[in-house]
Amino acid sequence: MVEKNKEFVFETETGTFDADIDEVRRMVERGDPDGFYAMGMACLFGQGVEQDTKKGFEMLEAASEKGQLYAMTLLVRLFISHDYTNMDTEKAVEYSRKGAEAGISDAQLFMGTAYMDGICVEKDYAKAAELFRKSAAQGNSEARNSLAFIYQEGLGVEKDIEKAFKLFKNAAAAGSINAQYQTGAYYEAGTGVQKDLKKAAEWYGKAAEQGDVFAMERLGVIYYIGSAELRAEPELSFKWFLDAALGGMLGAMYYVGLYYMEGYGVEKDRTEGIKWLRLASSSGNEDAKDLLFELEGEEPQTDR
Fold it and tell me: Choosing a second label site near 56 at 20 to 30 A (CA), which of 48, 66, 139, 217?
């Protein structure tokens, strides 16, 4: 909201405009593509009108049919996130191409992904890198994350680990969960940057707080093998392994069982330890299978 009585601010092909819902309705009545786009957004998010996802999609479809590129790009994003199903992959790529040619950041990202993965186009890493670079230059953190991967693997560009790290860290600072995990991994391994487990824990922590179970598991490891300062908090190691285990990570299930067995970071509880080891073992964790074999050689296995 930028002016009194103006409820909406919309970015369109002709620039940014602000309007109230009555103005948006009049635009729709005139058949204005930007009006359909604006009304679609209003219906999707319940801004100024009752929330109506079905109508929102219909408005965005109408805008797209009239050539509104931001509406096309939004539908592609919703299609990718599985929130919108009235589109196929070929259509999504077509819309992405049009938006990318017009310089829309998200469309450049989506089209770059299509070239990187060979989705309805011939795989072309150089084109993918070019599109990611253009999108990243507009501040798109997802594009920075994808471009970092391109440089990390040397796909269509000369491999540059240090540049990949900088791009990951930049995207991580902007909130990309995957980039936060990757930044932690770079600090943990000392790849492209000086090894620093404390900083690794910091970045893994940001990803873990957003629900990344891989980052949770790495935090469990770091608080177990890290510096004396990090190892001084075994409860944190247990906490993160437990959170990762509850998220389905097999290695974490093994460590939760082991910690219960040894009373490390948690009160010793053999019954609880056996439970977690069996859960990990039944899911295919070989370390858990080996440990259970040793334990059950000393004491008969109880009923499950």
Answer: 139
Give the whole-angstrom CA distance, residue 135 versus residue 143.
6
Would you say residue 13 has pLDDT above 90?
A: no
pTM of the model: 0.82
What are the tens digits of pLDDT across the range 107-140? 999 999 999 999 999 999 999 999 999 999 999 9
Quick check: 200 and 180 in contact, CB under 8 A? no
Residue 151 confidence class, pLDDT cut points 50, 70, 90: very high
DSSP state of 303: P
3-state secondary structure of 16: strand
Alpha-carbon distances, residue 296 vs 172, 288, 293 (angstroms): 45, 12, 5
Query: 248: closest CA among 256, 237, 259?
Result: 256
Please, what is the end-to-end C-alpha distance for the chain in angstroms?
A: 60
Rounded distance between C-alpha atoms, residue 49 and residue 193, angstroms: 51
Rounded-to-integer distance, Cα 247 and Cα 64, Å: 39
Beta strand pairing status for 15-19 and 8-12?
antiparallel
| Tokens of residue 35, six digits | 């009006």
What is the band of 176 on the pLDDT scale with cuts at 50, 70, 90? very high
Distance, in Å, from the CA atom of 166 to the CA atom of 36, rounded to the nearest integer, reads: 40
- Give the span between the Cα atoms of 60 and 69, in whole angstroms: 10
